[in-house]
């Protein structure tokens, strides 16, 4: 009864701008506002359950919390086990109405494993901190809040919605084709895809994400003849592994730059000997100043905006590596686990235009395109080649992947309102 009264009051007091929305859409906005406290409580429960990617039990526990939210709304919820990839699995929920299919994408896992000191939800007014609170548990709450508002307004009954929440977005399992099989299949079956990672906000202005860059990892290993340092640069010993490594990395720095491209070197070691662990995170080396180094190893990432850019840059990197200093060798390998780019497309821009129509009708600010070079990779990259995709529809905040990650709790309201109306219009054919 309290919810009904709040909705009626909100409708009665609707502004002239909000009055451009339909009665059902005004009901959605009122429901989101009335349930704001409930959404914050749900966010707190999700955040306080650790779901670091490698904490399989924790990821499944968060998935179970979401199941309890979606099943009462009429969704068929399945858990897709991914133990064969070394990960917990994914939650897939379907609501098979007669409308066009809208795919909603998010993830259950976070970068904060059980050994992290950052484990709890803390609220101070409209600001809250916690592990994964924005990336991506806030986005999951936006999905739930939007769907609840749609049910209250009566639009959910006829919508055709698929929700895919992966359990390994932060550290995908292998093989990747298995780890992302269900998401890719859902994308191919969808008419539209909406991804609920963090909202892009600058100087108080919300932005729409129509493109994201890829993310892949490379390993560079150089080798040289070892011996007494008095012979370095001569015909017998040549330049050694570290000079070859320095040549290649400096050539990357000088010759690769182009718009929307980055190529970070994350870790490096060289000496006699040098090595890297099986996981590719820890390098070791030893050596003396009077020994020409035998081996050097570096690992880094590569981020590109389109498949064409990715292929072009990889080819140039390989060409640079092949130009060896005397008596040295080098091998460049790219990891098979890679996030494809969400390349900019007319379909994505049309979705942003549809969202801005929602913004106008709800009296919310319109959203310009966000610079893709300022966004990381996400699961939306796996579906964007098959279906028009709009990303970054989660909550506003900052500090993702670091202790102190935070969100603006008030952004839950406007993001859930936007999402509820947009999903309804996309599925049911409204403008």
TrEMBL record:
GO MF, one example: metal ion binding
SUPFAM superfamilies: Bacterial exopeptidase dimerisation domain, Zn-dependent exopeptidases
Residues covered by the Peptidase M20 dimerisation domain: 210-328
Signal peptide: 1-19
Pfam families: M20_dimer (PF07687), Peptidase_M20 (PF01546)
Cofactors named for this entry: Zn(2+)
Ranges that cross the membrane: none
PROSITE patterns per the UniProt record, alphabetical: ARGE_DAPE_CPG2_1
Entry keyword set: Carboxypeptidase, Hydrolase, Metal-binding, Protease, Signal, Zinc
Protein name per the record: Glutamate carboxypeptidase
Source organism of the structure: Brevundimonas viscosa
């Amino acid at each position: 009864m309290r919810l009904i009264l709040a909705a009626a009051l909100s409708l009665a007091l609707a502004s002239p701008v909000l009055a451009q929305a339909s009665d059902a859409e005004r009901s959605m906005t009122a429901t989101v506002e009335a349930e704001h406290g409930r959404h914050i409580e749900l966010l707190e429960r999700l955040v306080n359950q650790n779901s670091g990617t490698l904490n399989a039990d924790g990821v499944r526990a968060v998935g179970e919390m979401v199941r309890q939210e979606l099943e009462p709304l009429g969704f068929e919820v399945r858990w897709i086990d991914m133990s064969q990839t070394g990960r917990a699995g994914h939650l897939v929920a379907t609501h098979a109405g007669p409308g066009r299919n809208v795919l909603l994408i998010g993830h259950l896992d976070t970068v904060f494993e059980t050994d992290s000191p950052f484990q709890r939800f803390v609220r101070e007014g409209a600001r809250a901190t916690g592990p994964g609170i924005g990336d991506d548990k806030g986005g999951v709450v936006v999905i739930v809040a939007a769907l609840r508002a749609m049910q209250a307004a009566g639009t959910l009954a006829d919508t055709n919605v698929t929700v895919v929440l992966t359990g390994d977005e932060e550290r995908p399992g292998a093989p990747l084709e298995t780890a992302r099989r269900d998401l890719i299949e859902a994308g191919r079956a969808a008419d539209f895809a909406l991804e609920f990672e963090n909202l892009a906000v600058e100087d108080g202005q919300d932005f729409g994400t129509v493109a994201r860059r890829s993310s892949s990892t490379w390993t560079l290993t150089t080798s040289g003849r070892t011996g007494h340092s008095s012979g370095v640069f001569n015909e017998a010993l040549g330049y050694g592994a570290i000079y070859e490594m320095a040549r290649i990395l400096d050539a990357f720095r000088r010759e690769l730059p182009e718009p929307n491209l980055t190529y970070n070197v994350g870790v490096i070691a060289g000496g006699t000997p040098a090595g890297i662990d099986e996981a590719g995170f820890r390098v070791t080396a030893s050596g003396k100043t009077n020994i020409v180094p035998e081996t050097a190893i570096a690992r880094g990432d590569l981020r590109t905006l389109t498949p064409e850019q990715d292929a072009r840059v990889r080819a140039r990197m390989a060409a640079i590596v092949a130009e060896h200093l005397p008596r040295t060798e080098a091998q460049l390998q790219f990891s098979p686990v890679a996030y494809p780019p969400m390349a900019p497309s007319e379909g994505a821009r049309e979705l942003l235009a549809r969202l801005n129509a929602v913004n106008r009708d709800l009296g919310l600010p319109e959203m310009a395109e966000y610079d893709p070079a300022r966004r990381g990779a996400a699961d939306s990259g796996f579906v964007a080649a098959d279906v028009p995709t709009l990303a970054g529809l989660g909550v506003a905040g900052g500090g993702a992947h670091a202790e102190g990650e935070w969100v603006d709790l008030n952004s839950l309201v406007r993001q859930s309102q936007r999402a509820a109306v947009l999903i309804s219009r996309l599925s049911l054919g409204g403008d």
